[in-house]
């Protein structure tokens, strides 16, 4: 019994790590076709664009509301009343702008995924068509003229965003 020794792997740093810790570093796919697609799925796009839109819109809206609350304060107000006014204005404007931009992101993601599925290609045209459709759908209730103008603005903005992304990839060393 005196001859048996207990192994202590912490004393010898040269021992191999058990194979249970050798996890893959690349994404795993169920089907081979999934590994060849170099874009996010429609669900990931939907979550990404909606979340980014809501977060960005809420931040900008809260900033706008904060400035409105600061400007709305009167000379005789107490500090507690001024802070309350700023918080109320920030919350109201943040919710309003965040929800609008989140809906725009939701519409854009759905339309872009639909256009990719119909055309079976992934290029700049998909983004421009999705931006155009998003503008039209978002302003459809305001009338035909407003929807057409919003569609043109959405298409131009989506095209500019994709062109800017391509320019950054090409000319900016990252």
Outline the secondary-structure elements:
Layout: H1 32-36, H2 42-72, H3 79-119, H4 124-138, H5 144-171
Helix pairs in contact: 2-3, 3-4, 4-5
Structure overview:
This protein folds into two domains: 41-120, no CATH class; 123-174. The chain is built from five helices and no strands. The protein has helices at 32-36, 42-72, 79-119, 124-138, 144-171. Helix 2 (42-72) runs antiparallel to helix 3 and helix 3 packs across helix 4 (124-138). The radius of gyration is 26 Å and the shape is flat. It starts with 31 loop residues before the first helix and ends with a helix. The mean pLDDT is 87.
Estimated share of beta-strand residues: under 5%
Order of helices and strands: HHHHH
Q: Given the C-alpha coordinates, what overall shape results? A: flat
Largest sheet: none
Number of helical stretches of at least 4 residues: 5
Mean pLDDT: 87
Question: How many β-strand stretches?
Answer: 0
Helix content: 55-70%
Tell me the Rg in angstroms. 26 Å
Q: Uncertain spans, ≥5 residues at pLDDT below 50?
A: none
Tally of discrete structural domains: 2
Query: Which structural class do the helices and strands define?
Result: mainly alpha
How far the N terminus sits from the C terminus, by CA atoms, comes to: 62 Å
């Amino acid at each position: 019994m005196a001859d048996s020794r207990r192994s202590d792997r912490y004393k010898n740093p040269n021992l191999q790590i058990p194979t249970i810790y050798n996890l893959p570093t690349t994404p795993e796919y169920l089907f081979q076709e999934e590994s060849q697609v170099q874009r996010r799925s429609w669900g990931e796009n939907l979550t990404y664009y909606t979340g980014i839109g809501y977060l960005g819109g809420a931040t900008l809206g809260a900033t706008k509301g904060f400035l409105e609350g600061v400007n709305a304060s009167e000379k005789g107000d107490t500090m507690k009343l001024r802070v309350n006014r700023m918080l109320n204005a920030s919350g109201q404007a943040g919710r309003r702008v965040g929800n609008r931009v989140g809906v725009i992101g939701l519409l854009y993601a759905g339309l872009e995924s639909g256009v990719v599925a119909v055309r079976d290609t992934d290029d700049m045209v998909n983004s421009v068509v999705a931006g155009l459709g998003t503008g039209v759908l978002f302003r459809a209730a305001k009338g035909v003229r407003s929807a057409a103008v919003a569609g043109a603005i959405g298409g131009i903005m989506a095209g500019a965003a994709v062109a800017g992304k391509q320019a950054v990839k090409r000319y900016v060393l990252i």
